[in-house]
Amino acid sequence: MNLFLACGLIFLLALLASWQLGRLRFPAVTSYLLLGILIGPYILRLVPDNLIKATDLVGYFVLSLIAFSLGENFLWREFRRIGREVVVISLAAVLAVLILVSLALWLIGQELSTAIILGAIATATAPMTTVMVIREYRAKGPFTTALLDIVAIDDAWGIIAFAITVAIAKLLTSPLNVGNPLILASAEAFREIFGALILGLILGVLLSILSRYVRGHTISLIYTLGFILVTTGISLHLKFSPLLANMTLGAAVINLTRKHLFFEVLHRIDWPFYLLFFVLCGASLQIPFLKELSLLGIIYVVARILGKYVGVYLGGQISHAEVKVKRYLGFGLIPQAGVALGLAIIAKAELPSIGNLVFTTIIATTVIFELIGPFGTRFAITKAEEMGKAT
Rg of the Cα trace of the chain? Predict the structure, then answer.
């Protein structure tokens, strides 16, 4: 099957799958992943090998779009508004998940590099799933607002944690592990993170200067995609984190221009790329690896849910949050989708020795989290007594 026919079928079948499974309350992401598994090389074999091999390329592009969009949440005046409570809770949740998942996987015999990479990826959430549930049940109130604010910046902390753990994992898996590993890991993480921040800031300033000459949605879209691709390309060439670079690019643009146009035009065209990416992730699933994931997958799922709950509760204690925030908000952070899959793609490319295991684990558990996640969010807003209050 040629690429054009395969891509056309993917788009059309994805619409059909989301429509049919949507009637059973399946999230769209889950339907796309399941479709990918069905039409992949182990079942119907409708996706050509060269398209499956392009998953990494599509993943880098999609994750760059997501990272740029996350930068919109760092408009300084809005960031100050969300307050200390949201920042403390989100950071506590990320740290708790990173520590608990990494420790649990290491204790069951996984390599330390595998454990910390999966721990970092586990910190990511799925903002779209949470927002869809909130809209469906017309939830509104302080609890819902806090949940949306935390979900908006949760992935940003997760991306930073991932960049640090990738630098450490590279040293742990390197056959030429000379010198002090801690110093080497710290230096590499510092270079990747601050190099990405500086690159994103420079290009963000440049885009902001050029924005005064932008007229209309088409030109804005071309500028936006061009700068995102340039940022990603330079980051990969210099071995910086493309995620942090694009997130910084987005943050710089929104703060220097105060214009949401660059983000709005992107939202109009990004979903087909996400759809293609999710289906290809499903098609890339190494089904023979699944038999090795029973214990690993169970521990990952349980430790991640526990980490979200414990982190939110401790963060709520530190920030003196309301009781219902401490008790129930963690259940609203269970969904896992696009960012986690994108990080798994990067782990697969950057760490070949452990990449397949990480990638397969994340795809398999994403299906689980996207099935149970919406119920967790609904449970949270129900317990907070804010369901149906939006007009």
Answer: 20
**Amino acid of residue 374:** P
Mean pLDDT of 382-387: 82
Structure tokens at 117: 């990479």
Contact yes or no for 40/285 (Cβ under 8 A): yes
Task: Assign 3-class secondary structure to the chain.
Answer: CCHHHHHHHHHHHHHHHHHHHHCCCCCHHHHHHHHHHHHCCCCCCCCCHHHHCCHHHHHHHHHHHHHHHHHHHHCHHHHHHHHHHHHHHHHHHHHHHHHHHHHHHHHCCCCHHHHHHHHHHHCCCCHHHHHHHHHHCCCCCHHHHHHHHHHHHHHHHHHHHHHHHHHHHHHHHCCCCCCCHHHHHHHHHHHHHHHHHHHHHHHHHHHHHHHHHCCCHHHHHHHHHHHHHHHHHHHHHHCCCHHHHHHHHHHHHHHHHCCCHHHHHHHHHCHHHHHHHHHHHHHCCCHHHHHHCHHHHHHHHHHHHHHHHHHHHHHHHHHCCCHHHHHHHHHHHCCCCHHHHHHHHHHHHHCHHHHHHHHHHHHHHHHHHHHHHHHHHHHHHHHCCCCCCCC
pLDDT, tens digit (0-9, with 9 covering 90-100), for 109-161: 888 889 999 999 999 887 767 776 777 777 888 888 888 778 877 888 888 88
Q: What is the dihedral of CA 37, 269, 358, 118, to 10 degrees?
A: -130
Domain boundaries, the chain: 55-383
pLDDT in tens, 226-281: 999 999 999 989 888 888 899 899 989 988 887 778 888 888 888 888 888 888 88
Separation in Å, CA 79 to CA 34, 87, 127, 332? 37, 9, 17, 21
Query: Domain 55-383: which CATH class?
Result: mainly alpha
Question: Quick one: tokens of 126?
Answer: 């799925």
pTM exceeding the 0.85 threshold for the entire prediction: no
